[in-house]
Amino acid sequence: MAATKAGFIGLGLIGGSIAKAIRKYYPGCELIAFDKSRESLALAVQEGTIDTACSSIDDNFKGCSYIFL
């Protein structure tokens, strides 16, 4: 994956699993995410699954090579 930044809108079972796989196989990829649940976002940052938790879908997602919905 040549992407340097990937975004997730929703970190449920599918989004969270994809984020964990990308983190495992492409550790240099920057991962950002938005989710309605602040607890899910905080846990994902704490576990190192994502780099940045976003409180809204905004300009943070502009530079993403991929966005997972």
UniProtKB/TrEMBL annotation:
Domain named 6-phosphogluconate dehydrogenase NADP-binding: residues: 6-68
Matching SUPFAM superfamilies: NAD(P)-binding Rossmann-fold domains
A Pfam family per the record: NAD_binding_2
InterPro entries named among the record's database cross-references: 6PGDH_NADP-bd, NAD(P)-bd_dom_sf
Single GO term (MF): NADP binding
Gene3D superfamilies: NAD(P)-binding Rossmann-like Domain
Name the UniProt record assigns to this protein: Prephenate dehydrogenase/arogenate dehydrogenase family protein
Biological source species: Candidatus Mediterraneibacter caccavium
Source lineage: Bacteria, Bacillati, Bacillota, Clostridia, Lachnospirales
